[in-house]
């Protein structure tokens, strides 16, 4: 096909952790095989595109971050299109298709994409292709792959329509474009879908659509009736495989001498100012025999300008586990080069569109610094990474299995043995010992090591110069796909860091007698948090926080207590706290809550213990949602008659959804309305920022 027949479309992506960008790059790669040219840009690069004058179709891939916000890269774009002075036909000329990424574990699923989609529609833009909403909870590829498959026909039809509007003969256009699918189909077979034989011979002919399995028993013997990470069973083991295109390499790594200094950790963040602060106290809030171990840490922020409100969140800059870094260096054969400085450059002549030096990799730092502070070595490998690892694997059976795991035919195996098992690069390298990736491949495919977010559990008014937070030490037990147990990247590191500080009195916040610490951690504020106390202190509110979900509410109550002491003439609304845990004597995190009750700061304290047995005639409620139902009339009064607030903090899947269902039932019962009407009322409360959640999956 002549190059002048290649049709252009604008491809924009907005990413937080790299997923939307990776999907956009996949679209860009496939576009050439379909005789099209994707003009790809990050949505923040508004100097490189102009939607006001864009005539070609636009494809947008956008993720969601936080509790439903567009990614940081899209903030300026969203602010621009949300200008209320824009006329309703501002984008009447625009034809677009949008793919949103999200996680249904969170209430505002795909809200980043939905926000942009809704606003473009309000401004007159038209869909040339239906919006896709991919769910990371079950696997993005379940929506992403078929959405991309259907994109090419939709683009073809959009170009036909565009040419008709421009006055060209649709017959001429049709004949010119009809060549594209044929040529694109041939390219598709050689670059997008690679049919690989087990003896590693490439299928040369574009007419061959199937793969002949020469030695199936190398992959799975007849005794292996159950699939696992390392072997497959029919039908996957006997299938022709459709695997992704091999991502082009674009990074070049050079080792230099061992002299110099690594960058300061503050240079690793782009969203605000980092503060290095000492940990002044650590308290274990749970008993040794509790199922989960909860710690409270106190930070000294007196010598910084770091400021916060109760309910705010902040981020901790954390490293990867030192033993895992050493193990990775050993497997890669780079143990002796850990302290060498590394220079990372874009490979000359790379075919990767928009190849650039990764922003999270310093211009110059040691190899160990990069693996410790810059790359998320625990990240679940994407299929594109698996595809690249195929080329680094020498054993024919291991190569085939990696091909299966990144193929469409092996999608369920990928979900079961990699995604759901939280398998990381180290696990893969142990499972497939002939796989030896290069350092540049790791830098290309491992995402940025993200700072971890925590809710503040204190009040600067109550404890000036102090910041407290509470967390459970996350545990990942061993499983067949991952034979070793691990602790969370950040919580495991923090627990090890403060081990010498842990107070012998496990169930108190009394700071007297705590030893001082020289250990410091780097933190920065997390913007855009609406999870704050009502501006009017006379407004009543309900707090629901089982387990460590109680954390922000300690700050709420400390702040409210101080306000009551300083402003005796103010009117304060009633306060409810609903707390739950497994066992009263093992993980009742803050037993001094009764102090808030006794001094009047807290009006109602309701607690439940899900694993404690009871001899009462009427069994007590087990879960916080059960408690809420017991006080239906009071909850309805606070929300409906007194226009109060309702706060929920904690686990999304196993708690927050149950609480919202309970609130819907209460509204339905007390208003004598059907469930749909009650759901609308709850949605209005969310919209009015009177039903607020700080939840995690």
Automatic annotation (TrEMBL):
Its cofactor is FMN; FAD. Residues 9-152 form the Flavodoxin-like domain. Gene3D superfamilies: 3.40.50.360, NADPH-cytochrome p450 Reductase, Chain A, domain 3, Nucleotide-binding domain of ferredoxin-NADP reductase (FNR) module, Translation factors. It is an enzyme of class 1 (oxidoreductase). This is Methionine synthase reductase. CDD domains: methionine_synthase_red. GO terms for biological process: cobalamin metabolic process; folic acid metabolic process; homocysteine metabolic process; methionine biosynthetic process. It catalyses: 2 cob(II)alamin + A + 2 H2O + 2 H(+) = 2 aquacob(III)alamin + AH2. It comes from Eudyptes chrysocome. The keyword DNA repair does not apply. One of its GO terms (cellular component) is cytosol. Its EC number is 1.16.1.8. Residues 272-534 form the FAD-binding FR-type domain. PROSITE patterns: FAD_FR, FLAVODOXIN_LIKE. Forms a multiprotein complex with MMACHC, MMADHC and MTR. It is found in: Cytoplasm. Its main location: cytoplasm. GO terms for molecular function: [methionine synthase] reductase (NADPH) activity; flavin adenine dinucleotide binding; FMN binding. Keywords: Amino-acid biosynthesis, Cytoplasm, FAD, Flavoprotein, FMN, Methionine biosynthesis, NADP, Oxidoreductase, Phosphoprotein, S-adenosyl-L-methionine. The keyword Hydrolase does not apply.
């Amino acid at each position: 096909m002549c190059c002048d027949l290649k049709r252009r479309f604008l491809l924009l992506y907005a990413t937080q952790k790299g997923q939307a960008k990776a999907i956009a790059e996949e679209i860009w790669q496939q576009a050439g095989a379909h005789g099209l040219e994707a003009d790809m840009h990050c949505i923040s690069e508004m100097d490189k595109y102009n939607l006001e004058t864009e005539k070609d179709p636009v494809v947008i891939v956008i993720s969601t971050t936080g509790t439903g916000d567009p990614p940081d890269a899209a903030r300026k774009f969203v602010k621009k299109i949300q200008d209320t002075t824009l006329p309703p036909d501002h984008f009447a000329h625009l034809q677009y298709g949008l793919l949103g990424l999200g996680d249904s574990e969170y209430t505002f699923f795909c809200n980043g994409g939905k926000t942009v989609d809704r606003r473009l529609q309000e401004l007159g833009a038209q869909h040339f292709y239906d919006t896709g909403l991919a769910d990371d909870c079950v696997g993005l590829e379940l929506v992403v792959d078929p959405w991309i498959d259907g994109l090419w026909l939709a683009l073809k039809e959009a170009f036909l329509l565009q040419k008709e509007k421009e006055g060209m003969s649709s017959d001429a256009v049709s004949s010119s474009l009809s060549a594209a699918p044929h040529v694109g189909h041939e390219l598709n077979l050689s670059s997008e879908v690679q049919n690989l034989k087990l003896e590693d011979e490439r299928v040369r002919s574009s007419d061959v659509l199937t793969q002949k399995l020469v030695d199936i028993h190398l992959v799975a013997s007849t005794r292996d009736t159950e699939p696992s990470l390392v072997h497959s069973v029919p039908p996957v083991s006997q299938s022709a495989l459709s695997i992704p295109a091999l991502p082009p390499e674009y990074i070049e790594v050079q080792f230099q001498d061992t002299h110099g200094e690594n960058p300061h950790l503050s240079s690793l963040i782009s969203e605000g100012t980092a503060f290095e602060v000492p940990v002044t106290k650590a308290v274990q809030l749970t008993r040794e025999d509790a199922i989960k171990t909860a710690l409270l840490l106190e930070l000294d922020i007196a010598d910084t300008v770091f400021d916060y409100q109760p309910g705010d969140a902040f981020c901790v800059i954390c490293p990867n586990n030192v033993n895992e870094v050493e193990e990775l260096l050993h497997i890669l054969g780079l143990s002796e080069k850990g302290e060498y400085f590394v220079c990372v450059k874009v490979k000359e002549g790379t075919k990767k569109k928009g190849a650039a030096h990764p922003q999270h990799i310093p211009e110059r730092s040691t190899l160990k610094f990069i693996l410790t502070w810059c790359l998320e070595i625990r990240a679940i490998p994407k299929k594109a990474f698996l595809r690249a690892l195929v080329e680094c694997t020498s054993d024919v059976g291991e190569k085939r299995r990696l091909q299966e795991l990144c193929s469409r035919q092996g999608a369920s195996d990928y979900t079961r043995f990699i995604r759901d098992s939280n398998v990381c690069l180290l696990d893969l390298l142990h499972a497939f010992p002939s796989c030896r990736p290069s350092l540049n491949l790791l830098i290309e495919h491992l995402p940025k090591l993200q700072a971890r977010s925590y809710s503040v559990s204190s009040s600067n008014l109550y404890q000036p110069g102090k910041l407290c937070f509470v967390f459970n030490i996350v545990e990942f037990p061993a499983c067949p796909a991952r034979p070793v147990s691990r602790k969370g990247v950040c919580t495991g590191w923090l627990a090890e860091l403060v081990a010498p500080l842990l107070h012998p009195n496990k169930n108190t916040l009394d700071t007297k007698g705590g030893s001082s610490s020289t250990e410091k951690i780097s933190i920065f504020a997390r913007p855009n948090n609406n999870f704050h106390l009502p501006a009017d202190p006379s407004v009543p509110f309900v707090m629901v926080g089982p387990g460590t979900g109680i954390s922000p509410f300690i700050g709420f109550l400390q702040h409210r207590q101080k306000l009551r002491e300083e402003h005796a003439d103010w009117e304060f609304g009633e306060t409810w706290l609903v707390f739950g845990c497994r066992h009263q004597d093992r993980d009742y995190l803050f037993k001094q809550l009764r102090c808030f009750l006794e001094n009047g700061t807290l009006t109602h304290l309701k607690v439940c213990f899900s694993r404690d047995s009871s001899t009462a005639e009427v069994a007590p409620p087990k879960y916080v949602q059960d408690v809420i139902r017991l006080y239906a009339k009071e909850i309805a009064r606070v929300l409906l008659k007194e226009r109060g607030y309702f706060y929920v903090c904690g686990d999304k899947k196993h708690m927050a959804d149950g609480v919202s269902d309970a609130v819907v039932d209460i509204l339905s019962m007390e208003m004598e309305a059907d469930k749909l009407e009650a759901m609308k009322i709850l949605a209005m409360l969310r919209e009015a920022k009177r039903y607020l959640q700080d939840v995690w999956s």
